[in-house]
Amino acid sequence: DGGITQSPKYLFRKEGQNVTLSCEQNLNHDAMYWYRQDPGQGLRLIYYSHIVNDFQKGDIAEGYSVSREKKESFPLTVTSAQKNPTAFYLCASTPGQGGGYTFGSGTRLTVV
Amino acid sequence: KNEVEQSPQNLTAQEGEFITINCSYSVGISALHWLQQHPGGGIVSLFMLSSGKKKHGRLIATINIQEKHSSLHITASHPRDSAVYICVAYSGGGADGLTFGKGTHLIIQP
Question: Cα(A31)–Cα(A74) distance, rounded to whole angstroms?
Fold first, then answer.
């Protein structure tokens, strides 16, 4: 079955290290998105990509970077510049404007 | 910009009770998602609906486009239903067209 795979489910890193979160989809969706969730808050958009080799900053892009070299992959790197990286990260995709969204299961990152 | 409000924020009930979680939004939408987030964080997509009602097992989701309101019902609730339930409204426009509710934290006690 088609879907989005985020791995790993839990990730631990030491402060100051960059870490890359994986998001892979086999739905042939053009658009992909990364969100961050903090306790008591709704999910917020970090970065998005509507087409291969193109991506845009969302509402809270500082301290993050992405790439979109392949249609099916949209990895998110949490850099050492991100002040509070410990959070839950969710990836989503959609075929395009108005299309139904598919959500990954998420990755919980803990930086110690 | 769309605003999505969920109620209640927290809900504790006894096993077997009928549960209702509400979601209201301020701007007309094309579709609405209900997500379930279990302790530990994993997200499961429950429903996407744009009109009427959908049912899956003990879960029922309804939406009233005119009233800008959706409800998620759980019949014969069970402790394994304990989770955070998140309403997500799609209204188009902007980067992703999505507005997420803050979630309803449900605890079902045995």
Answer: 10
